[in-house]
TrEMBL record:
<feature type="active site" description="Proton donor">
    <location>
        <position position="331"/>
    </location>
</feature>
<protein>
    <recommendedName>
        <fullName>beta-N-acetylhexosaminidase</fullName>
        <ecNumber>3.2.1.52</ecNumber>
    </recommendedName>
</protein>
<feature type="signal peptide">
    <location>
        <begin position="1"/>
        <end position="23"/>
    </location>
</feature>
<keyword id="KW-0326">Glycosidase</keyword>
<dbReference type="GO" id="GO:0016020">
    <property type="term" value="C:membrane"/>
</dbReference>
<keyword id="KW-0732">Signal</keyword>
<dbReference type="InterPro" id="IPR015883">
    <property type="entry name" value="Glyco_hydro_20_cat"/>
</dbReference>
<keyword id="KW-0378">Hydrolase</keyword>
<dbReference type="GO" id="GO:0005975">
    <property type="term" value="P:carbohydrate metabolic process"/>
</dbReference>
<comment type="similarity">
    <text>Belongs to the glycosyl hydrolase 20 family.</text>
</comment>
<dbReference type="Pfam" id="PF02838">
    <property type="entry name" value="Glyco_hydro_20b"/>
</dbReference>
<dbReference type="Pfam" id="PF00728">
    <property type="entry name" value="Glyco_hydro_20"/>
</dbReference>
<dbReference type="InterPro" id="IPR029018">
    <property type="entry name" value="Hex-like_dom2"/>
</dbReference>
<feature type="domain" description="Beta-hexosaminidase bacterial type N-terminal">
    <location>
        <begin position="26"/>
        <end position="151"/>
    </location>
</feature>
<dbReference type="GO" id="GO:0004563">
    <property type="term" value="F:beta-N-acetylhexosaminidase activity"/>
</dbReference>
<dbReference type="InterPro" id="IPR015882">
    <property type="entry name" value="HEX_bac_N"/>
</dbReference>
<dbReference type="InterPro" id="IPR025705">
    <property type="entry name" value="Beta_hexosaminidase_sua/sub"/>
</dbReference>
Length: 545
C-alpha cells in the first residue's frame, strides 16, 4: 500500500465512514488450507449481533472485545442462535477436528463453524485478520464474501522463551502470548531454569530464588561467547507461584499450553549456588556471570539430589496443567561425573559403563516419576545418548540404555538422520533444528525466507513415520538479549514464518503470499510497541553465528 492510499484510508476511518476490504486482500498468516472468494460481501455495523451458545460464548467475547478495540463497534452477544437474520454466528460442526474450523462470510452474515472452542478461536483469529488494522473508530466495515476451510498441519506449534539468562517479566510474556494466539501457535515453551538464573518460586527450597535468581553481572560484548566484557550490573528476577498461575490462565484463555522446562541434570549452576550439596563437587559456587555450559552438574548418585528434583517437579506439576514436562537434558559435561568417586561407585553398582548410560538411566527414572503423576517427559535429543558436542569424549557418549518409549524427543542438534532414526523407532519428535529455528541467530544466519522454508519432517523419512513428527518450535535463547527491544528484533517477523511452518501444509505454503500478508501484522506490531526487524534486515544473506 503506497503512502497516499494509506493516508486516504486513515482519513476515511477518522470520519467514521465504512471500511471495505477488497477481495484480493484476503491475506491471512498462517496461510489457510483453502480459501474460496465469492461475490459481494457482508457489512458489519453496530446493530450486527453475535450469536453463540454456551460452549462458544467465551470465544464470542474474545471476538466482541477485539472488534471493539479495533473498530470502536461494540456488538451485542445474544439472540436466537437458530435465527436466520444476518449476524455473526458460532455453530457446531462435529465433523471438524479439534482445531479445525470453517469461516463463511456471505451476504447473509458470518458463520464460524467448529467442533469446539479451539476451532472457533482459530476461526476468530482468521476473521480478525480481515478487519481493518487501525485504532480509528468506524460506523461499519464490509468484509468480502469468502469461505475458509482450515486446520493445522502439526499439533505442536511452539515458541520458546529463555528467561534463565535474562528475566523479562509478565508484561512481555503476555505480549508474546497475544502474538502467538494471533498466529495460531499453541505451545509456550517456558525455559525457566538455567546456569545463570532460577526463575520459578519453589516453596520447599526458598534459596533457589533468594540466591539462584540473582547474579552480580552479565557477559556482554560483540564477541559473544568469547567476550571478556562484563556489564558490571546485577541482574535478578523470578516468578512467584501466584504469577505463574496467572500467566498459565492467561495462556489457556488463548488456547496456549504452557510447557515448563526445568533443566536436569545439567545447566544446574544456579541451583547448586543455592544448595551446594546438589553438585558433584559439593562446593559453594556463585551464579555464573558468563554464559555457556555449566560449572557443575547435579550429583544424580545422591538420593537427596534425586529427592530435591522430584520435590521441584511436584510443585511444577501443581502449577502447570500441561501433560508434558520438559526436563532439558542437554549439554551435560560428563567430566564432572567422571571426577566424582560417588558417581563412579553408583555407576558400578548399577552396571552403567558410560556417563551416557548414566544419563539415560537417570532420565528414565525421572520419566517413570512423571508418569506416576500422570505426566509425560520431554527433553533435548542428548537424552537419547547422542554424541553432539566436541567437548565430550566419544567413548563417554556410547550407550546401550534405551530411553523410555513415552518420551517426547526435542531434536535440536546433530545429523538429521538421528531424528529420522528416532521417528522410525516410534518416538514422537518435535523438530527444532538449531540452524533453522533458533531466534538468537542473526538474520544473516537465518533470514526470513530460510525460516519460512523449514520443513519439520526430515527429508527421506518414510511416509508411514510422518505422524511421529508432531510439530516444531522456534527458540528465543536469551544470552544476548538483555533488553525487550533486542528480543523483539530477533523474534519479529520470524515468529510469523514459524507459525506458518507449523500450521500450513507444505503444498499450500507461498512465500510471496506470506510477504504480501506481512504488512498488516507489522502495522499491528507497531501499534503494540513491538520493535520488529525492518524489511531491509530480514533478508540479508551471508555469514552465521
Amino acid at each position: 500500500m503506497n503512502n497516499l492510499l494509506f493516508l486516504l484510508l486513515l482519513t476515511t476511518l477518522a470520519w467514521g465512514a465504512s471500511f471495505q476490504l477488497p477481495a484480493q486482500d484476503v491475506n491471512i498468516i498462517p496461510r489457510p488450507q483453502q480459501v474460496v472468494v465469492g461475490e459481494g460481501g457482508f457489512t458489519v455495523d453496530g446493530g450486527t449481533p453475535i450469536r453463540a451458545g454456551s460452549e462458544s460464548e467465551a470465544v464470542a467475547r474474545v471476538l466482541q472485545d477485539a472488534i471493539g478495540e479495533r473498530t470502536g463497534l461494540r456488538l451485542a452477544i445474544g439472540g436466537d442462535t437458530g435465527s436466520r437474520a444476518p449476524a455473526v454466528k458460532f455453530e457446531v460442526d462435529e465433523t471438524l477436528g479439534q482445531e479445525a474450523n470453517r469461516l463463511i462470510v456471505s451476504g447473509e452474515g458470518i458463520d464460524i463453524l467448529a467442533s469446539g472452542s479451539a476451532g472457533w478461536f482459530y476461526g476468530v483469529q482468521s476473521l480478525l485478520q480481515l478487519l481493518p488494522e487501525t485504532d480509528q473508530s468506524v460506523e461499519s466495515f464490509q468484509l468480502p464474501a469468502v469461505t475458509i476451510d482450515d486446520a493445522p498441519r502439526f499439533a505442536w506449534r511452539a515458541f520458546m522463551l529463555d528467561e534463565g539468562r535474562f528475566f523479562k517479566g509478565a508484561e512481555q510474556v503476555k505480549l508474546l502470548l497475544d502474538e502467538m494466539a494471533r498466529l495460531k501457535m499453541n505451545v509456550f515453551h517456558w525455559h525457566l531454569v538455567d546456569d545463570q538464573g532460577w526463575r520459578i518460586e519453589i516453596k520447599k527450597y526458598p534459596l533457589l530464588t533468594e540466591i539462584g535468581s540473582k547474579r552480580k553481572s552479565s557477559q556482554v560484548g560483540p564477541l559473544k561467547w568469547e567476550s571478556p566484557v562484563q556489564s558490571a550490573e546485577p541482574h535478578e528476577g523470578f516468578y512467584t507461584q501466584e504469577e505463574i498461575r496467572e500467566i498459565v490462565a492467561y495462556a489457556a484463555a488463548r488456547h496456549i499450553t504452557v510447557v515448563p522446562e526445568i533443566e536436569m541434570p545439567g545447566h544446574s549452576s544456579a541451583a547448586i549456588a543455592a544448595y551446594p550439596w546438589l553438585g558433584t563437587a559439593k562446593q559453594k559456587i556463585e551464579v555464573p556471570i558468563r554464559f555457556g555450559v555449566s560449572q557443575d552438574v547435579y550429583d544424580v548418585s545422591d538420593p537427596r539430589v534425586v529427592r530435591f528434583l522430584t520435590d521441584v517437579l511436584d510443585e511444577v506439576i501443581e502449577l502447570f496443567p500441561s501433560k508434558v514436562i520438559h526436563i532439558g537434558g542437554d549439554e551435560v559435561k560428563y567430566d564432572h561425573w567422571k571426577s566424582s568417586p560417588a558417581v563412579r561407585k553408583y555407576m558400578a553398582e548399577h552396571g552403567l559403563d558410560t556417563p551416557a548410560d548414566l544419563q539415560v538411566f537417570f532420565t528414565n527414572n525421572i520419566s517413570q516419576y512423571l508418569e506416576s503423576k500422570g505426566r509425560r517427559m520431554m527433553g533435548w535429543n542428548e537424552i537419547m545418548g547422542h554424541n553432539l558436542h566436541d567437548y565430550q569424549d566419544a567413548a563417554d557418549t556410547e550407550s546401550d540404555q534405551e530411553l523410555a518409549s513415552s518420551t517426547v524427543v526435542h531434536f535440536w542438534k546433530g545429523d538429521p538422520a538421528l531424528a529420522t532414526h528416532a521417528a522410525e523407532n516410534g518416538f514422537e519428535i518435535v523438530n527444532s533444528l538449531h540452524s533453522r529455528t533458533y531466534l538468537d541467530y542473526s538474520y544473516e544466519s537465518i533470514p526470513l525466507s530460510e525460516a519460512y522454508a523449514f520443513d519439520p519432517v526430515p527429508e527421506g523419512l518414510a511416509p508411514q513415520y510422518h505422524d511421529n513428527i508432531i510439530g516444531t518450535g522456534c527458540q528465543m535463547w536469551g544470552e544476548w538479549i538483555p533488553t525487550d527491544g533486542q528480543m523483539h528484533f530477533q523474534v519479529f517477523p520470524r515468529i510469523a514464518a514459524y507459525a506458518e511452518v507449523g500450521w500450513t501444509r507444505k503444498e499450500n505454503k507461498d512465500f510471496t503470499a506470506f510477504k504480501a500478508a506481512l504488512p498488516a501484522l507489522q502495522q499491528r506490531w507497531q501499534r503494540k510497541g513491538i520493535y520488529y526487524a525492518p524489511d531491509t534486515v530480514v533478508e540479508r544473506q551471508g555469514g552465521g553465528d
